[in-house]
Amino acid sequence: MFSVYYRTPRDEALRVLFLVEQDPARLARLREVYGGRHDVLDALWWRLHPRETSPRGVPDPMLERDGLQRQAFSREGEMAPTLEQRDLITGTKINLTADEHRLRELDAHLAEEARALDAAVARFVADFPAGDVAGIHHAGGSGEARSDAPATPLAAPARATPPAPPRWRRRLTAALAVGLAALLAVNVVLATRLEQVSGRLDSLAQQAITDPLARWGEVDASSAPALQVFIRAQTINDVYPVQLPTAYDLRNVRRLTPEVRTGAFGLYAVLAHPGDICLVAVLPDLSSSSTCSAVSDFAQNGLAVTSTELVGGDDRNPVVREITWRPNGAIVLGTG
To answer: Which end of the chain is more exposed for a tag (fewer CB within 10 A), N or C?
Structure first.
């Protein structure tokens, strides 16, 4: 298995969001230590999905900033009268238009919100380090340890599997405060060009979300009802606990069994490039097993993944669990 050290605020936010979604007690602790103005789940979502609306329907404040920046630096905005005001970021007196002043106020607010989230994540990481999976129920009893041995695909048509996502082997360190105010000083010309490119990318992304199977062309959801999971919108429950390999399509990750006791931390279906579908089982220690096949083959045979678990940490008593995802959507659990 590969190891990765999560050092960026985004990586830590990803883990925290995944853990609090699993455990109401941890979510309550995170809310307790968070001092921001927004809901902490919204703040985590925006850190992972900048300039998007959260699953609760709250837009990222950066969207408001983008509009205010365009207004402040437009031809009309530059011709507006200025007043001497104190810069909330530097503390110096400068001449600003009303829009520029509101933009500076919003920048200061965003920087304050970023610091509040950093502090909350750091407190949470200290309370619940990466190796702590206490309080998370999994089948097979609390005494079981988990192996990160790679799994052998059971499905006949299985292809070479993309590298399995890594496990955490190191405690996360306290997140460093983000210099958000410095990052917000964007050149207006560059912002205009980025807006044009972003609009094009958003259009392509929306097309992919509307019909995620269109690029594969060989099969549609009607030939394998299980594929309908990719038709629904991606939600916060679909957030994957570790960074995915580049072969996976991040917009087409769906959690399959939040309510089924699979013996795994989570079971996910993922569309992968250049035309595969993958089944990934994530264990409580965040190691994983996965198997992939062509979408057309899945429609005929489904997918199966195995994971090896050590009962009580004794490598003489391995338990091989088999999890099969059938084309009709059924999840079948078995023990080898």
So the answer is: C
Which DSSP letter does residue 156 get? T
What counts of helices (H) and strands (E) characterise the chain? Answer: 9, 10
Indicate the residue type of 158. Answer: A
DSSP sequence for 205-256: HHHHHHSTTTTT-S--GGG-GGGGGGTSPP-GGG--SSPPPTTEEEEEEEE-
Length of the chain: 336
Distances in Å between the Cα of 266 and the Cα atoms of 84, 254, 279, 290 are 56, 10, 11, 12
Q: Kindly tell me the sign of the dihedral angle through the C-alpha atoms of 38, 42, 48, 53.
A: negative
Per the omega criterion (within 30 degrees of 0), is the bond before 258 cis?
Answer: no
Q: Which amino acid is at 30?
A: L
The predicted structure's pLDDT at residue 34 = 93
Instruction: Count the Cβ atoms, other than its own, within 10 Å of residue 36.
Output: 16
Task: Give the E-state strand segments of 65-204 in sequence order.
Answer: 82-86, 93-97, 145-146
For the chain, the C-alpha Rg in angstroms (whole number) is 23
Contacts of residue 49, Cβ cutoff 8 Å, sequence gap at least 6: 60
- pLDDT, tens only, 87-97: 665 677 777 77
pLDDT at 261 over 80: no
**21, 27, 184, 185, 189 from 99: Cα distances, Å:** 39, 37, 15, 15, 18
Identify the CA nearest to 30 among candidates 90, 91, 117, 148.
117
